[in-house]
Amino acid sequence: MLGDRYRASAAALRSLSAPEALAIGEARDPDVFSRHLSEESHGVKPLRLHAQIARDLAIAIVSGAYKPGERLFGEIASSERLNVSRTVYREAVRILVAKGLVSSRPKAGTIVNAQSLWHLLDPELLGWAFEKEPDSSLLESLYELRGIVEPRAAAFAAERRSEVQLYAIRDCVERMAKATLRTEEGRTADRDFHVAVLAATGNSYIASLATSLGAAICATAFYLHGTERAQLDTVPDHRRVYEAIAGRDSDRAEVEMRALIRQAFLNIAGPSDRRGLGKTGCSGAPRAA
After folding, report:
1. Is 151 exposed, middle or buried, given 0-12, 13-18 or 19+ CB atoms closer than 10 A?
2. Which residue has the higher pLDDT, 30 or 201?
3. Residue 167 region, left (φ>0) first, then alpha (ψ -120 to 50), else beta?
4. Which long-range contacts (CB under 8 A, 24 or more apart) does 267-275 make?
5. pLDDT over 60 (residue 93)
6. Mean model confidence pLDDT for the chain
7. Spatial distance between the Cα atoms of 61 and 58, rounded to a whole number of angstroms
8. Domain residue extents for the chain
9. How far apart are CA 159 and CA 248, in angstroms?
């Protein structure tokens, strides 16, 4: 459970200036700690204290509240403001260091790293990136990566899949159709579909991307579900990918997966983010007849 001291600090944090609050992890949300306490009261297992502090600081960093090169408050000041021990705060910073978000050195302090040093495919970091409105360049880059990897993976799957693997892909489509993407079950089936396609490539290196890409799919789906943006029904798009893989039509599987990834991007991106798609791996292509 969150410690009593951390509970008390939730109220104290609201009296801080905006920079001070951001510096100890409110991530632009004055009710972030209240949300954690609400989750706890509803039976959601809370993170350990140091992990919670790391999460809040990470969200502040990936959401742009902290810029690369900025220095976080020192260990003593931050631990006092949070009313936690220095050991707890030190452990939180170690998590951020391990994920490449910050560098921490004696005398120099804790400094936010350049984005190029972040471990962007870390599943936990992917989740944090979508706790707030995601950075538009990161969002487009993520879908550019998916647009490069997944269409070719679908083509390989069409050529190499086994009957067992094909059944797994079909089962995911049926689960999505039954539950819809507006439910947790449907979003889980969506993730499982893409993971199953990667597994069906027969390529261990491609399949190893399942953890990261699966986390990305879950994070983006959960984020979209929490917005007012209309969520289009992409089950028919997934079914077309399945049918191409079932028919061992690698060219069609590649085209259909590329169209699916492009539609997923357009579904989540705001109007101002829908730029440059023709230059990315998300670029559309006419569907095979």
Report:
1. buried
2. 201
3. alpha
4. 267/224, 267/229, 267/231, 267/232, 267/234, 268/139, 268/220, 268/223, 268/224, 268/229, 269/136, 269/139, 269/140, 270/136, 270/229, 272/136, 273/136, 273/139, 273/140, 275/140
5. yes
6. 79
7. 5
8. 4-117, 123-279
9. 6
Q: What letter does residue 203 receive in the DSSP assignment?
A: -
Residue found by looking up tokens 């061992």 in the block: 248
String of DSSP letters for 100-167:
TSEEEETTTEEEEPPGGGS-TT-HHHHHHHTSSSPPHHHHHHHHHHHHHHHHHHHHHHHHH--HHHHH
Question: Which band of pLDDT confidence, cut at 50, 70 and 90, is reported for residue 82?
Answer: confident
Rg of the chain over all Cα atoms, to the nearest angstrom: 21
| Burial class (CB within 10 angstroms; exposed 0-12, middle 13-18, buried 19+) of 55 | buried
How confident is the model at residue 156, as a pLDDT? Answer: 98
Give the C-alpha separation, 142 to 182, whole Å.
22
In the block, residue with structure tokens 């120099």: 108
Alpha carbon 148 to its chain's center = 18
d(CA 260, CA 43): 36
Domain 4-117, second-level architecture: Orthogonal Bundle (1.10)
> pLDDT (tens digit, 9 = 90+) per residue, 116-160?
999 999 999 998 988 887 788 888 999 999 999 999 999 999 999
What percent of the chain lies above the pLDDT cut of 70? Answer: 74
Helix (H, G, I), strand (E, B) or coil at 35: helix
Indicate the residue type of 204. S
CATH of domain 123-279: 1.20.120.530
Span of 19-28, 48-57, 73-82, 133-142 with lowest mean pLDDT = 19-28
First-to-final CA distance of the chain = 57
Instruction: List the one residue out of 163, 153, 134 whose CA is nearest residue 197.
Output: 153
